[in-house]
Amino acid sequence: MTALQRGDFAAVQSLLGNDFHDTIAAQTPQVARALDALERAGARRPLLCGSGSAVFALAPDAASIAAIAERLDLEAAYLRFVTSFAQSPRWRTA
């Protein structure tokens, strides 16, 4: 949480992990396809959410995530959501 609050994107990226990631990606072609598409679109470390209902990628700024979303090449059946972290000063000190 501290790395997020400081806006230290490199630290956030280095701390990301999911124990299910490799196993689920290897056993579920749809998950592997989404992860591969995110990487091809420029995402640095796309990961599985929880036990596999979704995947996600972080980017250091809005322009970077918009570029990834624009380049993302997946069938229409794959839903896409783009959002950003809270920008309020209060969140950064919580």
Describe the model.
It contains 6 helices and 2 strands. The protein is mostly helical and 94 residues long. α3 crosses α4. The longest helix is centred in the middle third of the chain and has 12 residues. The radius of gyration is 14 Å and the shape is globular.
- If you average the pLDDT, what whole number results? 88
Order of helices and strands: HHHHEEHH
Alpha-carbon distance between the two ends:
10 Å
Structural class: mainly alpha
Number of domains: 1
Number of helices: 6
Portion in strands: 5-15%
Major β-sheet strand ordering:
1-2
Which value, in Å, is the CA radius of gyration?
Answer: 14 Å
Q: Based on CA inertia axes, which overall geometry fits?
A: globular
Instruction: Tally the beta strands.
Output: 2
Q: Low-confidence spans: pLDDT under 50, at least 5 residues?
A: none
Q: Can you give the helix content as a percent range?
A: 40-55%
Main β sheet profile: 2 strands, antiparallel
Question: SSE layout and pairings?
Answer:
Blueprint: H1 2-6, H2 9-15, H3 21-27, H4 29-40, E1 47-49, E2 54-56, H5 62-71, H6 89-93
Antiparallel strand pairs: 1-2
Helix pairs in contact: 3-4
Feature tags:
94 residues; mainly alpha; two-stranded antiparallel ribbon; 6 helices; globular
Short description:
With 94 residues, the protein is mainly α. It has one domain (18-86).
